[in-house]
Specification:
The chain is about 30% helix and about 25% strand. The protein has about 450 residues and is an alpha/beta fold. The chain has 2 domains: about 5-230, no CATH class; about 285-445, 3-Layer(aba) Sandwich (Restriction Endonuclease), CATH 3.40.91.30. The strands form 4 sheets. Strands 1, 2, 3, 4, 9, 10, 11 and 12 form an 8-stranded mixed β-sheet that branches. It has a 6-stranded mixed β-sheet with strand order 13-14-15-16-17-18, sandwiched between helices. A two-stranded antiparallel sheet has the order 5-6. A hairpin with a 5-residue loop joins β9 and β10. α7 runs parallel beside α10 and α8 (about 345-360) runs parallel beside α9. It is elongated and about 90 Å long.
């Protein structure tokens, strides 16, 4: 038994003789069908917040479990009731890991446990209550039936089940059980055929469902199964008092470990600080792909501030997107747009109206500057022309400057390389009526 390849999902660590992973630390290339025995510890999934936090894309597929179950002499042991939802808002029901022919599970509780199979007597020493039992009815998942059978055998068209209780309630319903499945189908292509021609094409290994113990943790229950059922040996954990007895050669090694831990802590602090700085700097990449009041507008205003302007938040949302005063004290009224298409004429007219309203209501004379991230959902090289002719003509007529967020990104790039002439940059914005002539990102040099 000890030579079987065993995998535990749901708790770790156990003995080094097996593979074991917690639900939130499953390796990328794990395939449960590679193992002879898989033990599922479902106890951590009873925490609904934890279960909802799991990324279902990291979980094994039902196809892997189907191949495991129908592998020769395989065993799948489940600790807990296998009808738990994982993930949010997209989720999976772990009952899909089992064949689509299962007993009905009834959520209830009680203390009387009878007719315990001797094979699992060691386990039920630590179970004083049950929290679910099965009924005599079967739950058939018709929507998964044909898909499941196609994975098992190309000629299978039926699924049979053998159900054996391992422990029962006082009213003879199973609180633990063993199942075996049969894939049935026509062994030959003879036509016509009758129901009697059905043959057993494949027999599954054991699928065993056990209740979560009440007297020990489910992780300890896994260790118990590994010891009692598979004969694995566990080293004793060192008691606390043994720490007082150390050999001389241990002391310098412990000191070295302490130095390494201190160095790791310092590096972790530096890493956290560097990560924060990088997050702050990389926010300007939103100029290339974002849209909207909450995402694009703040980063455009921040970028203009980096380029030397005094930039203010909008005085009235929906009436403007912000105001600026450049290094030469020239005033600009901002409109910022993120669009999946070309700029529309109404956006140009809207900016012209904002400029006029500010002058009429406040005598705040300004230059209208429209900064647009058009086709924001497309890669830069696939985008069309941002400004159609009617928008350009209107901008010329109203003395407005049309600029793209990619031009703004290019200006930031040049600023950080100390290659930007700020006077030329601001003069371009304030002297242009129509499309801003500043260079765009498509000629951004690629650093080696």
């Amino acid at each position: 038994m000890s030579q079987k390849r065993i995998l535990v999902l749901g708790s770790a660590p156990h003995t080094r003789q097996i593979s074991a992973y917690s639900w939130d630390r499953l390796p990328k290339y794990l395939n449960v069908a590679d193992y002879d025995v898989v033990i599922l510890n479902l106890e951590p999934l009873l925490d609904k917040h934890f279960a909802a936090s799991l990324n279902i894309e990291t979980l094994p597929s039902w196809e892997q479990f189907a191949r495991l179950v129908f592998s020769h002499a395989s065993e799948l042991i489940i600790i807990g009731m296998p009808i738990i939802l994982i993930g949010y808002p997209f989720y999976t029901d772990i009952s899909k890991w089992l064949p689509p022919l299962l007993p009905q599970f009834i959520v209830d509780s009680g203390e009387e446990i009878r007719n315990i199979d001797s094979e699992f007597a060691y386990y039920f020493k630590y179970v004083s209550r049950w929290f679910f039992h099965t009924s005599s009815d079967l739950n058939v998942k018709d929507d998964l039936w044909s898909h499941y059978l196609s994975v098992i055998h190309p000629q299978a068209n039926e699924l049979g089940i053998q159900f054996h209780p391992l422990a029962q309630t006082r009213f003879q319903q199973a609180v633990a059980f063993r199942m075996k499945f049969q894939a049935l189908g026509i062994a030959t292509r003879s036509v016509p055929y009758s129901q009697e021609d059905q043959a057993v094409l494949k027999i599954s290994g054991d699928v065993i469902c056990l209740p979560i113990p009440t007297e020990i943790s489910a992780q300890e229950a896994v260790d118990l199964i590994l010891q009692e059922r598979y004969g694995l040996q566990f080293e004793s954990a060192p008691p606390a008092w043994v720490e007082a007895y150390k050999l001389p050669n241990e002391l310098p090694i412990e000191a070295e470990i302490d130095r390494c831990k201190d160095a790791i802590q310092q590096l972790e602090k530096e890493l956290a600080a560097a990560t924060t700085r990088l997050r702050e700097e990389s926010r300007y990449r939103k100029l290339l792909y974002e849209q909207g009041e909450a995402a694009l507008e703040p980063v455009v205003r921040d970028a203009l501030s980096q380029l030397g302007a005094q930039v203010d938040e909008p005085q009235q949302r929906g009436r403007e997107d912000g105001r600026l005063i450049d290094p030469k004290q020239r005033r600009g009224m901002l409109e910022i747009k993120g669009l999946t298409h070309q700029l529309k004429l109404r956006e140009v007219r809207q900016l012209d109206q904002w400029v006029r309203d500010a002058f009429m209501d406040e005598e705040w004379e300004s230059k209208g500057i429209l900064i647009a991230n058009t086709f924001y959902n497309q890669p830069i090289g696939n985008r069309g022309e941002p400004f159609p002719p009617n928008c350009i003509q209107a901008a010329k007529k109203f003395d407005l400057c049309l600029m793209t967020t990619t031009q703004l990104f290019k200006a930031l790039y040049a600023l950080q390389r100390r290659e930007l002439n700020l006077d030329l940059f601001w003069n371009a914005l304030f002297s242009t009526s129509g499309v801003c002539p500043l260079p765009d990102i498509d000629i951004l040099p690629i650093d080696s």
